[in-house]
Design goal:
Strand content: over 45%
Order of helices and strands: EEEEEEEEEEEEEEEEEEEEEEEEEEEEEE
Number of strands: 30
Keywords: Signal
Radius of gyration: 20 Å
Shape: globular
Protein name: VCBS repeat-containing protein
Strand order of the largest sheet: 1-30-29-28
Number of helices: 0
Length: 362
């Protein structure tokens, strides 16, 4: 078992966070919504900018670091449901100065965003999950010196609505990362920028998490899927197989049916044994009070993966305000320097830091 030291950093109700060096002092800071929290203590809070609040949500479902304008300082990529716009916030490099926000694209309502360097250029591309729109991604335009220009190119790779849920997974094992959506997967072609990707409607994942994770759960050499129900009960894995005719099959297995609103998932080696753990938890009031299990206690968990036998360990559990969920976009990174990854958990229940103290004797 691992031991965690829990600390509430703020009662602010932003649902996304990130960890990066905001002020260039070489120490990781925590960013969440309208504020950043200065490391290593994270007690000192600095204003970033005002964030639009609509219907008990903040228009900030991602806080990803990227040097967009090439000035050597990490900026923030963000976007959310109500604003229907992918945006970036410019880091002014001066504590106390408000960050300017710039629109990238009016792309439709964003469930949340994930990032992956799809072409190996060294800078991740931006993949928003826009359930009502076709799947697109955005590439930062860089100059001859490789520095960001503040401009982005948009590539639309599917037709029809994307649906709720998205993951970046090498489904077929060809070495290229594909895009998993709730109703199937988009196969990356040799040139990811050359038009539509082939869609394979092989499964129906429901109100799927963002991300859907790809991992060989049972060790048979095929990539399986790990999926949370973002707006219902259930955490599952889908076993990839091969039928007699050579077609791909997917067998659904339960991991945990006791919780709801598993919106964000991570795979990380929390105990340093060389194998990743599944980390997730309940997003508090994901649809305010409209989802099944909305009034259940919140929690944060990790699961040991043993050939499909997921062993659950509770990091935190209890009523909101006392315990923490996982928000829509939490973060896992070693902040203390002890080698063990820590967990930063935002949400409408506040912003929490769980310092991973390592293994304890039970």
């Amino acid at each position: 078992m691992l031991e965690f030291k829990k600390r509430q950093l703020s009662e602010e109700k932003y649902e996304a966070c990130a960890v990066f060096d905001v002020n260039g002092d070489g120490i990781p800071d925590i960013v969440s919504g309208a504020y950043w929290y200065e490391g290593p203590g994270y007690a000192k809070k600095h204003f970033i900018c005002d964030v639009l609040e609509i219907s008990e949500y903040h228009d900030d479902f991602s806080d990803y670091p990227m040097d967009v304008d090439g000035d050597g300082r990490l900026d923030i990529i963000t976007g959310a449901w109500w604003g229907e716009t992918l945006r970036w916030r410019r880091n002014p490099g001066e504590t106390g100065t408000a960050w300017e926000t710039f629109d990238i694209d009016k792309c439709g309502s964003i469930e949340t965003i994930r990032y992956y360097d799809i072409d190996g250029c060294g800078v991740p591309e931006i993949f928003p999950n826009t359930p009502g729109m076709p799947q697109s991604f955005y590439k930062l335009v860089r100059d001859a010196d490789g520095k960001g220009t503040g401009e982005f190119l948009k590539y639309t790779i599917s037709e029809g609505s994307s649906g709720h849920g998205m993951g970046i997974v090498d489904v077929n094992g060809d070495g290229r990362m594909d895009i998993v959506l709730s109703g199937g997967w988009l196969e990356q072609p040799e040139d990811p920028f050359a038009g539509l990707w082939t869609f394979h409607p092989e499964f129906s994942l429901g109100s799927a998490s963002v991300p859907v994770l790809g991992y060989d759960v049972n060790g048979d050499g095929l990539t399986d899927l790990i999926v949370g129900q973002a707006h219902d009960y259930g955490l599952h894995w889908y076993e990839q197989g091969c039928a007699a005719d050579g077609s791909r099959t997917w067998t659904k297995h339960e991991i945990d049916m006791t919780g709801s609103q598993f919106h964000d998932l991570w795979l990380a080696d929390l105990d340093l044994d060389g194998e990743p753990e599944l980390i997730t938890g309940k997003r508090y009031r994901a649809h305010n009070d409209g989802d099944p299990g909305a009034h259940d206690p919140v929690g944060l968990y990790y699961y040991k993966i043993d050939g499909g036998k997921f062993m659950k360990h509770v990091i935190d559990f209890g009523p909101a305000g006392e315990a923490s969920g996982a928000g829509i976009y939490f973060w896992v990174q070693d902040l203390t320097g002890n080698g063990y990854p820590d967990i930063v958990a935002p949400g409408k229940d506040g912003l929490y830091l769980f310092e991973n103290l390592g293994k304890r004797e039970d």
